[in-house]
Amino acid sequence: MQSWQMQEAKAHISEVVKCAQIQGPQEITMHGRPVAVVISRETFNRLSQANDSLVDFMRRSPLYGVEDIEFERDASLTREVAF
Hints:
It is built from 4 helices and 3 strands; from the N terminus they run βααββαα. It is α+β, with helices and mostly antiparallel strands.
C-alpha cells in the first residue's frame, strides 16, 4: 500500500484517486501516523455488500439444512460467584 503525507495527498488528490483505482488502497498519514485510507469505489462496493440480513447470511451457510449436527457441551461445574 502506497503511503501519502496529508499535504502531498491534498496537493495530488486526483493522482491519489487514480492510484487507488489502479494499484489498490492508498494510505494517508499525518505527522507520520496513518489516519485514512483511500479506496476505489469498486473495492468499497465489494467490502460493503453486507446488506443481507442475518437470516440470509445463515441460509448461505454450507451447514444450512443439515439436521445431524451435534454440539459438545462443557460438562464442568459452574463457578461460584460472590455477591
